[in-house]
Design a protein that fits this description.
about 500 residues, Dihydrodipicolinate Reductase, domain 2, 8-stranded mixed sheet, alpha/beta, binds 6-O-phosphono-beta-D-glucopyranose, 2 domains, Rossmann fold
């Protein structure tokens, strides 16, 4: 996050080299970092996976990925030729010793050519059940270097529950030091998410208001129009709570809830985030009944096309009890936030794709305007729109121009599009550059992951042990189950949305 150019020659070893993540995200990110001059001139990418491919076939596969998914569009001939020279492929079976002995030989050859500053980054873009085996083999075949020259990146899901997350942390801790482990949460690399820290801590007017005395409630809403698509196999064993709340949404909540760090050090910032997770009120069975809602989508129509219900998606159990929607009311039990609800919701096949954080401030303490002056009275709101619109808006009451005193709400807007011309980097560009420059600020530390699991486990266990009799309980293209509206309406509020361009 504090990144500048990476000066050290870098060797990326990508396990799962032919997978979707590499094609859609990693390869385009490394390609763009290189084209934009953020990489050392000496670098290599070794992709490895089961498929039998030559170096050239792998290069062509990556080019296809970059052409289809890079924010910068199709590759440019010169840049591509320079990049492709540094790309290698090694077909592998992670249970075969040769995979690792061959890999070691390739890495050593490259290191020799790159000199003593060369560093190796292992990226585990594979199914989570392979994390332990690969990590153990890296150790067994002597592929783990020092804190200075060797790092490992682990994709989510980090564990399936608290116990498995602890087990994985323990296993990794026996192989790498915590400083070498980069647990990725791609939300933390998003430009607008990184800006939350800047907005909160680089401006003086907010801090006096940022507490229970002035804020009435907070909402974090991450809604998606898409269904599970071809990820049914993974998703059916996961669900919205594990897939989105345990990681991305709780991380957003930490950024809103954290105390002011004393400096910008990775551990200082992560300490402050862990404090939020530790202060969050544990859920009792009664809280789960009253303050959480789960949902599952049924079939419906999206943009004129009929879409299947969750239970008939590919690789999904036709009687599935997995939630595709989750909402909850959290509390952070500390001086700053005591009694202030944090409502969160997320789901698939919803009406809009949008990620919004809304801070609703308390109403004015005394109304001086006569009844009827305000056409529409609304408390102040700060809305941080993470995507698709990238903006921060402050909603205030203003006088409408005219001879009469008429008040209505208006938005003061900071909109990325209107303010900056440069294109924002993709989250994976930011995060991969952080890994190369050894900055762990935007990565999850072992205790962060475990605290987040600890918080959600009572809900996970309760939902898994009680089959929902109401599933499916919301149609595709809706805002989710009615109970989610009731959850927030009971406290006198409603879910806030922005009129977005992709819908009316
Ligand atoms: C992933 C989840 O971590 O985040 C997906 O596994 C979800 O289910 C995705 O769709 C959302 O990410 P983004 O960046 O598209 O908001």
């Amino acid at each position: 996050m504090k990144t500048s150019k990476c000066l050290n020659p870098t060797i990326f070893v990508i396990f799962g080299g032919t997978g979707d993540l590499n094609l859609r995200k990693l390869a385009p990110a490394i390609y763009n970092l290189n084209s934009d001059g953020f990489m050392s001139k000496e670098y290599a990418i070794i992709g490895t996976a089961r498929k039998k491919l030559t170096d050239d076939e792998f290069r062509t596969t990556l080019m296809g990925g970059i052409n289809s998914f890079s924010r910068a569009g199709k590759v440019k001939k010169d840049q591509w030729e320079e990049f492709a020279k540094n790309v290698y492929y090694s077909s592998s079976d992670v249970s075969a010793p040769e995979t690792f002995t061959d890999l070691k030989a390739s890495i050593e050859k490259l290191k020799k050519a790159f000199g003593p500053k060369a560093q190796v980054i292992y990226y585990l873009a594979v199914a989570p059940n392979l994390f332990p085996l690969i990590a153990e083999c890296l150790q067994k075949y002597d592929l783990v270097g020092t804190e200075e020259d060797c790092r490992v990146v682990i994709e989510k899901p980090f564990g399936h529950d608290l116990e498995s997350a602890k087990e994985l942390n323990k296993l990794l801790a026996g192989i790498f030091s915590e400083k070498q482990i980069y647990r990725i949460d791609h939300y933390l690399g998003k430009e607008t998410v990184q800006n939350i820290m800047a907005f909160r801590f680089a401006n003086s007017f907010l801090e006096p208001l940022w507490n229970r005395n002035h804020i009435e409630h907070v909402q974090i809403s991450v809604t998606e129009q898409l269904g599970v698509g071809d990820r049914g196999g993974y998703y059916d064993g996961s669900g919205a709570l594990r897939d989105m709340i345990q990681n991305h949404i709780l991380q957003l909540l930490c950024l809103i809830g954290m105390e002011t760090p004393i400096n910008f050090d990775a551990d200082e910032i992560r300490n402050k985030k862990v404090d939020v997770l530790k202060a969050m009120r544990p859920f009792s069975p009664e809280d789960i009944r009253l303050s959480t809602v789960r949902g599952q989508y049924s079939k419906g129509w999206v943009e004129g096309k009929e879409v299947p219900g969750y239970r008939t998606e590919k690789d999904v159990n036709p009687q599935s009890n997995t939630e595709t929607f989750a909402a909850a009311k959290f509390f952070v039990d500390n001086w700053r936030w005591q009694g202030i609800p944090f409502y969160v919701r997320t789901g698939k096949r919803l009406f809009q794709t949008s990620s919004l954080i809304t801070i609703q401030f308390k109403d004015v303490p005394h109304q001086i305007f006569p009844a009827g002056v305000a056409e529409h009275w609304q408390q102040n709101r700060l809305i941080i729109s993470i995507q698709p619109e990238m903006s921060i808006r402050l909603q205030v009451q203003a006088k409408r121009p005219g001879l009469d005193m008429v008040l209505n709400p208006v938005d003061m807007v900071f909109d990325y599009k209107g303010t900056y011309t440069a294109q924002a980097p993709e989250a994976y560009e930011t995060l991969l550059l952080d890994v190369m420059t050894a900055d762990q600020t935007q990565f999850m530390r072992a205790d962060q992951v475990e605290s987040a699991w600890e918080l959600v486990m009572p809900i996970v266990n309760s939902w898994e042990s009680k089959t929902s009799l109401s599933f499916p309980n919301y149609p595709a293209d809706s805002w989710g189950p009615e109970d989610a509206e009731a959850l927030i309406a009971r406290d006198g509020f409603h879910w806030f949305t922005l009129p977005l361009k992709n819908k009316d």
